[in-house]
Write a structure and sequence with these properties.
The protein is of the alpha+beta class. The protein has helices at residues 2-7, 18-27, 38-47, 74-77, and strands at residues 12-14, 31-34, 48-49, 71-72. Strands 1-2 form a two-stranded parallel sheet. Strands 3-4 form a two-stranded antiparallel sheet. α2 (18-27) links the parallel β1 (12-14) and β2. The relative contact order is 0.17.
């Protein structure tokens, strides 16, 4: 998708899950927007350690954390198990 967008000089926007989309945005030259809903961010921060903080309307992955930089907070998530 990113290559097709670049071929037609069309911007790309990531949808939902800003902690995941920030990595895509860093890899895609045509990235223009990162969808940022406060309810998604609240869920990410409640269930995952290492979610990137918003600073001056920007997100950036932590280069010192491996992979997506997220740690699942299993103990915090247990109350939602069904």
């Amino acid at each position: 998708t990113a290559a097709l967008a670049a071929a037609f000089d069309t911007p790309v926007s990531t949808h939902c899950a800003p902690s995941l989309g920030v990595h895509v945005g860093c890899a895609v030259r045509a990235q223009q927007h990162l969808e940022y809903f406060h309810d998604h961010v609240h869920i990410e921060q409640a269930l995952f350690g290492g979610a990137p903080p918003e600073e001056d309307a920007c997100l950036a992955p932590d280069p010192d954390r491996p992979g997506l930089g997220l740690d699942f907070k299993r103990q915090d998530a247990e109350r939602y198990a069904v």
